[in-house]
Q: What sequence folds into this?
């Protein structure tokens, strides 16, 4: 018969594994956003300001989602 202590240890191991995966995905998402932000610095064409503004809004929304997740 499985004891409650064994069940708790198994649940804890599963939780830590899942948390580690979520953390890695979150860091990857932040890295991707950081790369986009760095890329935005290279834009200097006034003719593309509408496209850049759309991209900035999209990135701002992603950052807000990350902030809410943290």
A:
């Amino acid at each position: 018969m499985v004891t409650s202590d064994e069940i708790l240890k198994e649940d804890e191991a599963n939780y830590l594994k899942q948390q580690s995966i979520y953390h890695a995905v979150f860091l990857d998402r932040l890295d991707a956003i950081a790369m986009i932000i760095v890329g935005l610095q290279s834009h200097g064409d006034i003719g593309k300001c509408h496209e850049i503004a759309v991209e900035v809004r999209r990135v701002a929304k992603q950052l807000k989602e990350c902030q809410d997740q943290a």
Summary: The mean pLDDT is 89.
